[in-house]
Amino acid sequence: MKSWFMQASADTGTLELRDVPVPEPKAHQLLVRLRAASLNRGEFILGHGLQKSGTSKAIGAEGAGEVVRAGADAQAFREGERVMGRCAGAFSEYALMDAREAIAMPASLSFVEAAAVPLVFLVVHDMLVTQGRLRAGEWLLVTGVSSGVGVASLQAAKAIGARVIGTSGSRAKLERLQAAGLDVALETRGADFHDAVMQATGGKGVDLVVNTVGGTVFAECIRCMAFEGRLATVGYVDDRLEATIDLQALHARRLTLFGVSNKLRTPEQRASGVPAFVRDFLPAFAEGRIRPLIDSVHPFDALPAARSRMEENRHAGKIVLQIGGDA
């Protein structure tokens, strides 16, 4: 089978398409014929620590396809069933998926749409529901709202009934997201949005912040938080890994700061959030209340071009790799 690998050096990640054997599923795994897989910025950023310098590994983290074979302990899924889920090496014709991570695809979703769901929306469920406790009528601020996580946060928050403020340096992207329900669009890449946030919220501030940008806007995010507000740190595309914390604000306003990452979680811990995601979010996908926003679809052999589009920040929503067959 064909599979994309990334060779990591000190400062670059070089992509290579290889011929490798089709893997064999273990007892708890499914062998999935992948039809689509989506890109996530973190897997290409060497500084995120997902791959060590000098190593080479199959790349890709989420996809959708059809079950080819199920392990002895994964018989809940049948051959030919359409599934989506997080899985290592997803930029491949076949991949292994932990049965605990596999989610039956709603009939309303295409493979391309389903490939844009598992990783990003599981992260969003963790941020908005499990830890963020976002409720209808509350305010959500998303920095870098046009990113994959940002768009998914917007869509999930609107399904919950929250109001959303988003920042982006692109007016065109913000206009597209306003059509998708963005309540307040702030055109900026800097830490200069406090006054606009306070004006939009009537001086109250926001109940939850999703910071996809990093340390350059961290302090500004805290300034924007309401009493008992929550702040999720999910990325640092600005490569700023340190920021100051206003301890007086943290103390007086009873703020909650938390991170969202799967890097150090065990397989059991990663899988533990899937049932709640299926319960809370999957009906919204099945009923069309959430529809993944697809920026662009690229053929399997065009992963380098898809990666360039993402790294040049030309996208709004998810970039998807189509892997043969029906999309």
Verbal overview:
- Helices cover 27% and strands 28% of the residues.
- By secondary structure, it is α/β, with parallel strands linked by helices.
- It folds into two domains: 2-117 and 292-322, Medium-chain alcohol dehydrogenases, catalytic domain (Quinone Oxidoreductase, Chain A, domain 1); 121-259, Quinone Oxidoreductase, Chain A, domain 1 (Alpha-Beta Complex), CATH 3.90.180.
- Strands 3, 5, 6, 7, 8, 15 and 16 form a seven-stranded mixed β-sheet that branches.
- The two termini are 19 Å apart.
Task: Describe how the helices and strands are arranged.
Layout: E1 2-8, E2 13-19, E3 29-38, E4 56-58, E5 62-70, E6 82-86, E7 94-98, E8 103-104, H1 111-115, H2 118-131, E9 139-143, H3 148-160, E10 163-168, H4 171-179, E11 184-187, H5 194-200, E12 206-211, H6 218-223, E13 225-233, H7 247-252, E14 256-259, H8 267-272, H9 274-280, H10 282-286, E15 294-299, H11 303-311, E16 318-322
Helix pairs in contact: 2-3
Order of helices and strands: EEEEEEEEHHEHEHEHEHEHEHHHEHE
Distance between the termini: 19 Å
Helix content: 25-40%
Give the helix/strand class.
Answer: alpha/beta
Low-confidence stretches: none
CATH level 3 topology of the largest domain: Quinone Oxidoreductase, Chain A, domain 1
Question: Which CATH class of the largest domain is shown?
Answer: Alpha Beta
CATH superfamily of the largest domain: Medium-chain alcohol dehydrogenases, catalytic domain
Number of domains: 2
Q: What best-fitting shape do the alpha-carbon axes yield?
A: globular
What is the number of E strands? 16
Described by strand count, sense and barrel closure, the largest sheet is:
7 strands, mixed
